[in-house]
């Protein structure tokens, strides 16, 4: 599924957060969004997912949705957003219960989601009994249970430690290997963007404007190969260069305020 | 000893700081006088005490008496029992007799009486009940009557009425409302057929048209409303003090009787000697308008004699109601050696 | 490798000092028997003050007198009559106040108009002492059970409103957004997210309102009640029967204790996930 954003502006009262964003997310691509703190990345994602109403501009989707898709645009959250009073399987069940599914189909979706994320043995556990990484896996399994056409990920790994992050990146890689689900991936972490994204959008400091879109030529599954490192280092330098200036200015603004 | 003091404070603290010291005699003036205190309510029935204080009868007996004001009849005998005041003067309730049964208080002289011709408490019928035929006190049999509390003077008045007209309290439904405002609310709301109400309340209900006064307790069943009392310990250990106190009290009592309880040949109450002066004293002490005080001045027996038979009847009544220990000997609640 | 630490010790003249433990205190440990023991000691001291004549029975009846007053009530069956009457009033009044309070609290927690209207009203009415309203309640509801339910219900209503709407406020917003992003209908969000999310706060409110109901049953039974623990306590006070008074108070506090225990069990059951 494609996502087309046209001339998007957003204000919270007097605070202009996004200004004149034009962006198309292509079918099957993973688009990383980076930018300084507070530049409006989460707002952009919320608008794309239809849970924040933009001040002006249009958002549209086009293209096919997969079979059995219940919720074409689906979020994966930084804080996992699991219901603490529901077990792992019931957290998945939550997003299926309001759809007219047979009990068998619902069970099947829950089971396949949990098995794919290696959570089957923990299906009766409560979120508080799981580690951070496991909790985000529940979040991913929940997203998979609705067979999404597009994933919106808002810093999905930033609450996790480095090793867990690495493991979950592998999970994402195998996900995009198999499903090629379109995704918008907001992050602060250049390494995540370099490992996972096809293109990287750099936003300016607030009000967020589109600074640049950097394409990573190297195929996703070869980015750990020695031959890929030269190109990746070059992309990294460019991104860092862009971010650095913006981040410094944003920092100063915050200090002034 | 310290424990006893502590418990007193506990009990009194719980009663609230309701007791307010009233018009303590300036210290300089009190030189050489024996200090003592009495618990009273700010009602006309405490009139003789206010008169004795105001006209210096206590001082003539060598006493410096502090008046401590309480807000309910319950609190006064408790304060005497706890030793916070030496004397008390209020209406007689089942609670008083329970304290007497524990040896905490004893009556030494009379206070006011319900007496024919003196309108203190009225039987008031609601409009509906009156229309339905409740026109005289005897008709209260079988009716719903609001009272303040179980064991109150109103409760006894219902019992007395029954004794006179051949029914018992079982033949009426008494509804305890805790205080006069709630009693009035139940009455106005038509929740009961009648109340026995103090004169001011009764007259107001009648004036509003929400009720009809069908009789006066004084006319129907005269009885010993209240008494001057102290603790048996005071009688035993400070008898001269008690005698002096009663002496001053009786002087005032006689004056009160002469001024307020005089009747003409037709039996109507008329103003006696010193009426205006004494009325002003009582009005000042009770913080009421003289007209209001004048409307509810009770009868006192000039020599302070208790209606002994009625006191015995009261004790028996409470015992039959199960509210006072059956073992209490009715005669033991009074000490008749102070009033001759 | 061991010799790297050697120069350190050689350099400083003093011998190695053990590190002193300084992390003690300030932690709450369970002392199962302490409370019980404290009770036993308290009762023993109380009883002995009477036995040795330090305090008169009138001022502080000894536990034995209170116990025998209680036993007498249990024997003649009046205890059950009083308990039954009070429990019925507490039960009905509390349920009425709670249901109404939760409905209003929910409206205020969810609807901004309801909140704008409700907050000042609740602030204005909550602090009114219900006892002051008793004469009005008598006129409105009579002197039968309704006025007693109303007294308890009114007392329970306002704290329930406040507990409910602040509990709803404390439901994490991100969970609601998550549910919206998965397309859950409004009613489902209310039932599956808001209600369970607010439950801890609402249950904490129950603890308070249960105590309030218990306090108000005494006030409610000022209104022409023949039976009821509150009526019993009031009468005992009026009659200066201090042993019965304390026996009634003891029943009330035991009632409070059992209600508290029931609520604790309920919390443990319903809030296992915390
Ligand atoms: N609901 C809101 N009301 C008012 N201001 C908001 C709201 N949400 C966000 N903001 C402000 O809008 C700006 C952009 O917020 P947003 O969360 O989109 O930034 P972000 O790029 O995701 O930041 P971060 O990197 O910290 O996640 C911030 O300054 C934030 O304080
Ligand atoms: Mg963000």
Automatic annotation (TrEMBL), chain A:
Gene3D superfamilies: P-loop containing nucleotide triphosphate hydrolases. The keyword Membrane does not apply. InterPro entries: AAA+_ATPase, ABC_transporter-like_ATP-bd, ABC_transporter-like_CS, ABC_transporter_ATP-bind, P-loop_NTPase. The keyword ATP-binding applies. One of its GO terms (molecular function) is ATP binding. Keywords: ATP-binding, Nucleotide-binding, Transport. Residues 3-232 form the ABC transporter domain. SUPFAM superfamilies: P-loop containing nucleoside triphosphate hydrolases. This is ABC transporter ATP-binding protein. It comes from Azospirillum aestuarii. The lineage of its organism: Bacteria, Pseudomonadati, Pseudomonadota, Alphaproteobacteria, Rhodospirillales.
